[in-house]
Amino acid sequence: MTEFVPAPAILPDGQRVYAIGDVHGCLEQLRALHAQIAQDIADRPVDRCLLIHLGDYVDRGPECAEVIEMLAVGSTVPGATVPGATVINLMGNHEDMMIQAIGSGQAEDAAHWMRNGGAESLLSWRIGRDVPQIVWGTLIPFPHQRFLRGLALSHRIGPYFFAHAGIRPGVPPDSQKRDDLLWIREPFLSFKKDLGAVVVHGHTPVRQPVVRPNRIGIDTGAVLGGPLTCAILEADRIGFLQA
Fold first, then answer.
1. Which CATH superfamily does the domain covering 4-242 fall into?
2. Most buried by CB count within 10 Å: which residue of 73, 125, 188, 218?
3. 104-141 pLDDT per residue, tens
4. What is the tens place of the pLDDT at every residue in 139-154?
């Protein structure tokens, strides 16, 4: 049974949010976590249920293409759907790097992606290191590319603001720049004052989920050997599922 502790903010009665941290091609952990969420919903039905993936589906891990297929195609892939939950997929900095490398044709964009795990992503699409950059876009299925380009940068639910990396302190959550939503670490991580919302984010790996008055960090390094983490937000409390 999930143990809950006081959360930094309060959701209205009848509303629940499941937020999943950085996947990085860890397909089986994502499937297992989806199964846990589905079981939790079945055991504890709720009027309104939202499942948010916080980005970084690709790079470094072994099954990036399969993760994208699962999230993009949905019901035709085992484990993709979670009955009773509306799904929102956010963009991470690794999806941003991939889109730039595929679309720009610039060698520096390809090199940047390769330095950050892009080779593992290409291999998952059966694209070898010797395949020229100009060809990558023709070998990655169009539905996968459309999914990547259509990812949202953020989502707000009442007092909570969901973004891959975080937000820049002093700037309203709804006025954030794209690069900060995808890439920021400092001064966000060490900022202790009010941010205009409680920010739920991934991007920066931690051993255990971080719950602060102004932010919740849930990238627990699945691709580094840690668990894949899901935060459960409901009423005035928070709990965690891990796979």
1. Metallo-dependent phosphatases (3.60.21.10)
2. 218
3. 989 999 999 999 999 999 999 999 989 999 999 999 99
4. 999 999 999 999 999 9
Amino acid at 172: P
Domain ranges of the chain: 4-242
- In single-letter form, the type of residue at position 152 comes to A
Sheet holding 160-163, edge to edge: 154-157, 160-163, 198-201, 215-217, 210-211
Question: How many CA atoms, within 13 angstroms, populate the side-chain half-sphere of residue 195?
Answer: 30
Q: What is the pLDDT of residue 73?
A: 78
pTM for this model (two decimals): 0.97
